[in-house]
Design brief:
The structure holds two protein chains of two kinds. By secondary structure, chain A is an alpha+beta fold. Chain A has helices at about 5-10, 15, 25-65, 75-90, 100-115, 140-150, 160-200, 205-210, 215-245, 275-295; strands at about 65-70, 95-100, 125-130, 155. The two termini of chain A are about 25 Å apart. Chain B is α/β, with parallel strands linked by helices. Chain B has a single domain (about 1-220), classed as Rossmann fold. Helix content of chain B is about 35%, strand content about 25%. Chain B contains seven helices and ten strands. At the A-B interface, helix 8 and helix 9 of A face helix 2 and helix 3 of B.
Chain lengths: ~300, ~220
């Protein structure tokens, strides 16, 4: 498409636009369908971006962190903790190692046992948070050394439950993108149906235009421009409503978990602006294809 | 200008036209007669490319119509003004807009064409009805408007399919005068009509050839007309 053609398409030709009579119900249905699809697309995009952030964060944080559990009798716990910390501090690839305070351990158990848990009366193991450096420590080597020097130590690199979590977050992100594609496909299908209905309803108009010397391009443009603009306007409204909906979701918090993090961050708020443009693009292609097919069927 | 060479046309298994050959030379005036259903409209459609022959060749302005792509066919139709039997207007547009359709679809600047359009509306006597919608027009007004639309691009040829079919004698004479005037301007005219009185009236004013379709063949009508 040349710049002139694009300009003519965007600005339109008032005379050409009037060639096709306005079709009330088709116009309203197209607007509504585009708005509904854009509204859903905003949420699918928000879901996809949020789960993507989550997958990245979990993957990065959990990959770097490990937990050393000291399962020792109460009278040996402090000594074994000291020994473990000494081993960790001497190990290449360990950025930091820190024994969790009693309050921190209590906070970890609070969701299950409440806040009034008397940890000193329970055989709760001491936890040590280990943060890996880049490059990280040799896991097998560290395990071997700990088993020799700190008999009650169990090193957990979180791999067992990290992988399913990250996989789940990535699946959610994939689901979000698949939803976006399905929404795009459904929009194309609906616009195609509406365009076909409009083309069929205006068969006589098309015939007259062809008989007076209109080129296929001219006739198709009258329909394409109309449906493209409807999709753009409808999707614009749907996007605005969707963004308001996302903005009204509860703010991200640790208590709320994943659901409260569903939304856009920073420049991410600009991404939904692409939805009306994508809808217009889909409508343009769908109507152009339908119009070309219909006109091609005529002699 | 338009030449049909051994043209045949079959429709629904039956042959409507067979081995039709005719040449409509520039500036000529032709009538096409024949009983209803003989194939007059089909022959007209073959002339402006709305139908493709099942055999033979149609040449328009030195080009084989079968070889024209869709764009070239659209350009060809701008050189052939057609008055349809049922006029074929866009009912949501005013009479002026309907008459101006060929100008609009061919990308003319309507502001520059306004004067020509007004002049043409005046020529067909419809200046006072410019803003009317097609359903509000009488049969005669519709036919005159269709004629105005057919000639607005100053085509080389005008084809009129039963232009006087739905009008009274006075109006048919008026339409005939307009078509004769066009012929005197150098346009080739082909009128499909079964109105023998009209044909006789025309022959007294213009040198017209009368072609008749009978038994799927095209013949030159004799002196009985």
């Amino acid at each position: 498409m040349s710049r002139r053609t694009i300009r003519a398409f965007v600005l339109g030709d008032a005379q050409a636009d009037r060639m096709v009579p306005p079709t009330g119900i088709t116009a309203r249905l197209t607007l509504f369908a585009a708005a509904a699809m854009a509204f859903l697309a905003v949420f699918a995009l928000a879901l996809s971006l949020a789960s993507g952030r989550l997958a990245d964060r979990w993957s990065e944080e959990l990959a770097r962190a490990a937990t050393l559990r000291i399962n020792a009798p109460p009278d040996q716990r402090a000594a074994q903790t000291e020994a473990a910390l000494a081993v960790l501090n001497q190990t290449e690839g360990v950025a930091s190692a820190r024994a969790l305070r009693e309050q921190e351990q209590a906070a970890l158990l609070a969701p299950w046992f409440g806040t009034e848990l008397p940890l000193d009366t329970l055989p709760v193991p001491q936890l040590i948070e280990v943060i890996a450096d880049d490059p990280p420590y040799d896991l097998a080597g560290l395990r071997l050394r700990l088993s020799a020097e700190v008999p009650g130590a169990v090193l957990d690199d979180h791999a067992r439950w990290r992988r399913p979590l990250v996989d789940a977050a990535r699946s959610l992100r994939r689901l979000g993108w698949i939803s976006m594609l399905l929404i795009g496909g459904a929009t194309a299908a609906m616009i195609t149906l509406a365009a076909n209905a409009a083309l069929a309803a205006n068969a006589q108009v098309i015939e007259v235009l062809r008989l007076v010397g209109a080129r296929d391009r001219y006739i198709a443009q009258a329909f394409v421009r109309r449906f493209t603009l409807r999709a753009l306007i409808g999707a614009g409204v749907g996007m605005a409503l969707g963004m308001i909906g996302v903005a009204l979701l509860p703010a991200a918090s640790d208590e709320g978990g994943f659901l409260t993090g569903l939304g856009f961050r920073g420049a991410g708020w600009l991404l939904p602006l692409l939805i009306p443009l994508a809808a217009a693009g889909v409508a343009f292609l769908a109507t152009l294809t339908a119009a070309r097919r219909r006109l091609g069927d005529l002699s | 200008m338009i030449e049909l060479e051994n043209v045949g046309y079959s429709y629904g298994g039956g042959e409507l036209l067979s081995d039709v050959s005719v040449c409509l030379s520039p500036g000529s005036f032709h009538f096409l007669t024949g009983p209803s259903g003989a194939g007059k409209t089909t022959l007209m459609k073959l002339c402006y490319g709305a139908l493709r022959p099942t055999s033979g060749q149609v040449r328009a302005f030195d080009a084989d119509m079968a070889g024209l792509d869709r764009d070239a066919m659209a350009l060809l139709r701008r050189r052939i003004g057609v008055v349809h039997q049922d006029c074929r207007f866009l009912d949501h547009l005013s009479l002026t807009d309907n008459v101006a359709l060929p100008l609009i679809v061919s990308g003319h600047d309507m502001a520059q064409e306004r004067e020509n359009l007004d002049e043409l509306m005046n020529w067909v006597g419809l200046s006072q009805r410019a803003g009317a919608l097609p359903p509000e027009l009488s049969g005669g007004e519709r036919q005159r408007a269709a004629l105005a639309r057919a000639v607005i691009l100053s085509p080389d040829m005008v084809l009129a399919d039963e232009p006087t079919g739905n009008v009274d004698w006075e109006m048919s004479q008026r339409l005939l005068q307009l078509l004769i005037e066009l012929n005197r301007m150098g346009k080739t005219v082909l009128i499909a009509s079964h109105d023998l009185a009209l044909i006789r009236a025309a022959k007294s004013q213009v040198q017209a050839r009368v072609l008749r379709i009978a038994n799927r063949q095209l013949q030159l009508a004799g002196a009985d007309l």
